[in-house]
Amino acid sequence: MGVYKIAVLKGDGIGPEIVEASLLVLKRVGEIFGHDFVLEEGLIGGKAIDEKCTPLPQETLDLCLKADAVLLGAVGGPKWDNLPTDKRPEKGLLGIRKALDLYANLRPAKVYTALIDASPLKKEIAQGTDFIVVRELTGDLYYGEPRGIFRNGERYAINTMHYTESQIRRVVRKAFEIARVRRKKLTSVDKSNVLEVSALWREIVEEEKQNFPDVDVEHLYVDNCAMQIIKRPSTFDVIVTGNMFGDILSDEAAVISGSLGMLPSASLGDKHALYEPVHGSAPDIAGKGIANPIATILSVAMMLKYSFGLEKESSVIEQAVERVLQMGYRTPDISSEGTTVVGTTEMAQLISKEVEKLCEG
Ligand code: NAD
Ligand code: IPM
Ligand code: MN
Q: Residue 295: CB within 6 Å of ligand 2?
């Protein structure tokens, strides 16, 4: 029995639908195990721009700093697409990651047996895939200075790829620690044949390797890695990489599991943590009640495990998701012949029901 304070940032597009669905599961877990999950909502992204003229209001930031964990839906949408980069909804998300110093973004990509037919890859290639991308989240092109668009004379634009030694080292260490308790294989991804930032990255991985002699290390260039993920996904265990490459590779990894709607994430710092699905606000399906809530529900499971140490509760949610998929229930993004298509809320209700059954038995 515990009391846990969670800042809930629903955001834009399908954000409110998937977060509300995931909260049905969280509440059920709370009732069954006797935990008090205290939820406090904050504005972020486009909704915050509309109501508070900024994508990350100070009160939202304060709420997150005080909370034991943050649960986020997604931000962004066509309504705000014409704003300059530094005023967009996405800036709210980048701001919160930086302010909470969430440097390690864990994105586990797993192929569920029940979903093997939803994968765009051949069954024999996809099966057994179970790896985790550890994406650095507070540096790189995303935050490097100088940056900007210059419009006097011929227009030009600059972004700066930038990493300090300590920024690289802390995320690399985290990835080694994760690999150590998994299958002990670490793939470091860079572009060190071209970029100095990557050369430093590789140097530091080689140094840290001395502290983790039990972990096998492989280095791949990002272009080759993008190809190998499709060719031999089941051979990867932990992939560590920078912010930009990690963003791209994790969407690629997600789709092996059948849908972007399946991939959860945990963004961890030394003091704070935020949990969110890997996908975005999916404006094309927002408001229709058909978004897949599983990525967010699994993000809640990650929160229970990583922030609150509630391993049993977390694993019950994961098992419930697996069971509902085995029973043949699907949101449209993962549906195939012979399966039963359900909406966002119904999927969450089915998962809650299985949580209940697992706890009875
Ligand atoms: P997206 O991830 O929102 O959507 C890509 C495709 O995947 C769409 O076809 C969408 O319908 C589908 N999809 C995504 N999540 C799904 C779910 N849960 N269930 C079923 N289908 C799902 O990416 P996009 O279209 O490139 O971006 C849309 C907006 O979201 C942009 O404004 C972008 O900046 C933002 N975005 C936000 C985040 C975030 O908040 N973490 C992440 C990525 C993109
Ligand atoms: C993600 C998103 C974000 C990113 C955007 C919305 C800022 O794509 O969480 O993967 O690029 O990190
Ligand atoms: Mn992304």
A: no
CA angle 72, 78, 81 (to 5 degrees): 90
pLDDT average per 10 residues of sequence, the chain (361 residues): 94 98 98 97 98 98 98 98 94 97 97 92 96 98 97 97 98 98 98 98 98 98 98 98 97 92 97 97 98 98 98 98 97 94 98 96 69
Q: What is the pLDDT of residues 194-248, one digit of tens each?
A: 999 999 999 999 999 999 999 999 999 999 999 999 999 999 999 999 999 999 9
315 CA distance to ligand 2 middle (Å)? 27
* Domains and their CATH numbers in the chain: 1-102+260-361 (3.40.718.10), 120-256 (3.40.718.10)
Distances (CA, A) of 190 to 168, 197, 236: 12, 9, 16
Q: Does ligand 2 lie within 6 Å of residue 19's CB atom?
A: no
C-alpha of residue 282 to centroid of ligand 1, in Å: 4
| E runs forming strands in the chain | 3-11, 36-41, 69-74, 104-110, 130-136, 148-150, 156-158, 185-190, 216-221, 238-241, 266-268, 273-275, 329-330, 340-341
Tens-place pLDDT, residues 9-24 = 999 999 999 999 999 9
